[in-house]
Predict the structure.
Amino acid sequence: MNIINLFRISLKALYSNKFRALLTMLGIIIGVAAVIAMLAIGQGSKQSIQDEISKMGSNMLMIQPGADMFQGARMSASATQTMVLEDYEAIKANCTYLAAVSPMVNANGQAIYGSNNTPVGMQGVNEDFLHIRKFTINSGRMFSEREIAVSAKVCVLGQTVVEDLFGAGVDPVGKSIRYNKIPFEVIGVLSEKGENGMGQDQDNVILAPYTTVQKRIMAITYLQGIYTSTTNEEVTQKAKAEVEAIMRSQHNIKEGDSDDFNVRSQQEMLTMFSSTSTVMTILLAVIAGISLIVGGIGIMNIMFVSVTERTREIGLRMAVGARGRDILSQFLIEAVLISVLGGIIGVAIGVGSASIIRNTLHWPVVITSFSIVLSFAVCTFTGVFFGWYPAKKAANLDPIDAIRYE
Amino acid sequence: MSEIIKALNLKREFMVGNQKVLALKGISFAVHAGEFVTFMGASGSGKSTLLNILGCLDTPSEGEYLLDGISVKSMSKNERARLRNRKIGFVFQTYNLLPRTTALENVELPLMYNPEISSHDRREKAKMVLEAVGLANRMDHTPNQMSGGQQQRVAIARALVNDPVIILADEATGNLDTRTSYEIMALFQQLNANGKTIAFVTHEPDIAAFSQRSIVLRDGRITRDEVISKPASAADALAGLPKEEE
């Protein structure tokens, strides 16, 4: 018996049981569609996190006071007062791989304009910060070195703050707002940046000279962090080592003692978030894979029913000359046809639903050919694996009993 | 004349629980080419067991069985499948046609398992035998669109399609009314007249009367093997039946 005839027989058997075949396929269809859609969503979120983080500035290097032991108690990073302006100056003066350096102090409070108010963080930085975080000025200007030197009460607003305080269509440049009861003159507005990879609104921010935030708002002398950006991505590791060396000597840390600060690069963040989303993707794929197995068991179930129901047909085929091998192949091909057809439909539905998710929910979705090949391979394997046992059972039937089976 | 079937002291035993049951207790006979033999016997006489052995579905525990000069006893399952495919045509009591499959495709079935025959030859051959059994205009009908007699004709066509050396019929008229039975027997007689060797298992004496030779089995042994000198003609019997009411 040649393979074309076997296919013809199997197709015919499926065709005469269209509805049942379709229901059996449904398990595989759902499984494959789920695998593809899930992987697409997982890959999409991974991709978008990577994009977002590199948009934030892929060669950014952040130096923060370490969450370190102080007299036996572990301190929170923001409570540590070990980082001072001298550190900033030393880094700025000595580090060769850095293109921009800015101190960072964060104040929390309420911004008020007229009858409107909004809670917003005020970041005390210098003029280099725009370059580090890849912010651009939309209207007005950034504060100058001179304004930093005199702790001028000037600020630059993010788009969200502008909307909250002034409403649409008002140019806030030149207006005066109050932040924690202190009046600030708005001298510029940042361009819109949107949410970052973690869903935080990057436009809900007020930038002010760090000296102003230190002295007038927080009344502190230390820094909460130093943001820098390297000249290019390749030197990130060298820059990091250099910054660490400078900080250690600044803080008189002896060899063997642990740092009281830590330096994190954006690339590390990238790896960190990518790995979380990789785990997520694997989890989604596993869940979807389980539904494929359930679909496979459905195939096995139906194939058993089919073998029992067609016992007489099997007996007749054997009587007219079918060998055990022919019967085995016939039922195996049937099982594989169900799973592969289901796979094809599943791929179509998976790709379709992924596109619908992209177009309606605007989730980032990336369909990889890998996921299509994978789910296809898995469902073919499922067909063979779960079809084997029923097919073997059919092939081992005794034609004498089978042909008189009632 | 050549011997199509040669059975020498056939024995067949089954294990029922711990007990050995001897279904055939030593049967010897020969069927020559062109013969029309009926095997008669009550249920339990061993005629089904004998038919299974003759049809190469089963092998004897003892004795020798030659089909068309080929010893079947030591053949593997696959070799017997091939032998059935090339040399035997089966006709069953319950027709055993594939449901939802046209008459033509049902008839083609045995040839599907013969890779030496092309799909074109297969179709031509199937059409030819369907015409021979008088179903030229029913080729595209499925079993549920046909009467019992028509279905049995399709089954006979299927048994003919591989040019078998012998047709084995197992109670082929058992499910049919008298008129249709006679029609089918007339077809068998016609095939026999054209040279086909036929072995027909039945328990109805009036059916056996249409054959040339009757072998009677009882308790696993042949109790009678007689030649019917003047077989009745099924066509005449059919004409003798009262006219069907319209």
